[in-house]
Specification:
The structure holds two protein chains of two kinds. Chain A starts with 6 loop residues before the first helix and ends in a 5-residue tail after the last helix. Chain A has one domain: Arp2/3 complex 21 kDa subunit ARPC3 (Orthogonal Bundle), CATH 1.10.1760. In chain A, 74% of the residues lie in helices and 0% in strands. Chain B folds into two domains: 156 residues, no CATH class; 70 residues, no CATH class. In chain B, strands 1-2 form a two-stranded antiparallel sheet. The radius of gyration of chain B is 24 Å and the shape is flat. By secondary structure, chain B is mainly α. The chains are: A mainly alpha, B mainly alpha. At the A-B interface, α1, α4, α5 and α7 of A face α1, α3, α4, α5 and α6 of B. Chain B: Keywords: Membrane, Transmembrane, Transmembrane helix. Chain B: It holds the Pfam family CbiQ. Chain B: It is found in: Membrane. Chain B: This is Cobalt transporter.
Chain lengths: 196, 252
């Protein structure tokens, strides 16, 4: 998958994963408190944040595999840092990454508008929910309650991953550090012929 | 110590498999017996301090309670039909079976966190990455990339503190409204990410200029072996599962 990647792209993928692994773990603490108070639905409001690195990495590098790998690496890093969710995070990260990757693949890695990014966030929401249904045993809960959980997760994925991810990446692009990556190439191409 | 010397990849796969198999049941008795066995394995065969363990488990206890009361308040009503009524108060219905399911969901959180801690507290990060490369054939470019990224963690933390202090010195106040909070957060995240990406590029250049190509290898400076004790560990978890399953079926 990474045979055609530059080494710098791989390491950029890793450092993005490192930064967001820390963010993920911080939100995990928030989520735990909310779950204690509100039950499993407490996670759903902030669930989207856990998909954000897929969106950012794919949006910056625009390569097949970026969404899946970045999320997977973030999962591995979370395990390396050491926390009690542990190894399962790698599996759930892979499943989340696959959801976003599927949406980017469906757009043939050619469209990078806000809508695609929001759909990618929702893609992660769908796959991660199917997995959560199995591993956390949502079958024992009221279907109406589970549906509500799913709707909140979809919205969270679209907003906290898709919208926030695009906003952060665009902010990062303005600093100029992304000039040698695909995001800059496409943005410059789009601005040709425009008076500046 | 014994658990610390198990091959990380074997440990990882065993624990993942166990979690997936356990998720097929929703049986508090099975979970409880399995959990007791795990405690014995964890504390007799490793050097984990029980204080660290308890500290890391505490949030999950909290989370488990959240699951239990949610499952009691919002049960799947399709399942309740024809079950043994235990308690009815207004719209709140509790049957024997739904009580067991609720306890099962809570106990599942506890067992999964115990399994995870067994891995996390007995595995060194670097050995884990080396084992992923050697046993699970993770591409070397990816693995060394991850390790390089992981090394940046303390640097990123230092940078965060420097930025915090710089903002304090310049009199940046605490954010009050939500909008201020978001832009305050952005004022940290963007520079942190920008400097992380610059570091990544410098590292990539440094690695390549020293001849790192990322070709597959057959020899390693530090070999992570597969030993007999790895098989013993797998067998141990397997036996524990069979015992828990049997105890649970005898009791019910």
């Amino acid at each position: 998958m990474t045979a055609k990647w530059r080494l710098s792209e791989i390491i950029v993928l890793s450092v993005l994963a490192v930064v967001f692994a820390v963010v993920y773990l911080a939100f995990f603490q928030v989520g735990n408190i909310m779950v204690g108070i509100m039950g499993p639905i407490g996670y759903e409001f902030i669930f989207g944040i856990w998909f954000i690195v897929s969106i950012i990495a794919a949006y910056i590098l625009r390569k097949p595999g970026a969404a899946f790998l970045s999320e997977t690496i973030a999962g591995i890093i979370e395990v390396l840092i050491g926390n009690a969710v542990g190894p399962m995070l790698i599996i759930s990260a892979m499943i989340q990454g696959a959801g976003a990757e599927a949406v980017f693949a469906a757009s043939r890695y050619k469209r990078w508008g806000l809508w695609v990014l929001m759909f990618a966030g929702m893609g992660s929401a769908v796959t991660s929910f199917i997995w959560g249904y199995f591993i956390s045993g949502y079958g024992a809960l009221d279907p109406a309650y589970v549906t509500l959980m799913f709707v909140i997760r979809l919205a969270s994925g679209a907003i906290l991953a898709g919208l926030l991810g695009k906003w952060l990446s665009d902010g990062l692009y303005q600093t100029g550090v992304l000039n040698s990556y695909a995001i800059a190439r496409d943005k410059k191409k789009a601005s040709y012929g425009r008076a500046s | 110590m014994w658990l610390h010397s198990i091959n990380p990849s074997v440990k990882l796969l065993t624990i993942l498999m166990t979690i997936i198999v356990l998720a097929l049941f929703l049986d508090p008795v099975l979970y409880f017996v399995f959990w007791i066995g795990l405690m014995i394995i964890t504390f007799f065969l490793s050097a984990i301090s029980w204080k660290t363990w308890a500290l890391l488990t505490a949030p999950f206890l909290f989370m488990a309670i959240g699951y239990v009361w949610t499952a009691m308040l919002f049960p799947n009503e399709e399942l309740l039909k024809g079950e043994h009524m235990l308690f009815e108060w207004g719209w709140l219905i509790l049957t024997e079976e739904s009580l067991m399911r609720s306890a099962g969901l809570g106990m599942r959180v506890i067992v999964f966190s115990a399994l995870s801690l067994l891995f996390v507290l007995t595995t060194k990060p670097v050995l884990f990455m080396l084992s992923l490369m050697q046993q699970l054939k993770l591409p070397t470019r990816l693995a060394y990339g991850i390790m390089a990224g992981y090394q940046f963690l303390p640097l990123i933390k230092d940078e965060f503190q420097i930025m915090q202090r710089a903002q304090q010195i310049r009199g940046v106040g605490r954010p009050q409204t939500l909008k201020e909070r978001v832009s305050h957060w952005k004022s940290f995240v963007i520079p942190l990410l920008a400097s992380a990406i610059r570091k990544a590029e410098r590292t990539a250049v440094a690695m390549e200029s020293r001849g790192f190509t990322g070709e597959p290898r057959s020899h390693w400076y530090r070999e992570i072996p597969l030993q007999k004790r790895d098989a013993v560990f797998v067998a141990m978890i397997g036996v524990l599962f069979i015992v828990s399953f049997t105890v649970s079926s005898i009791l019910q």
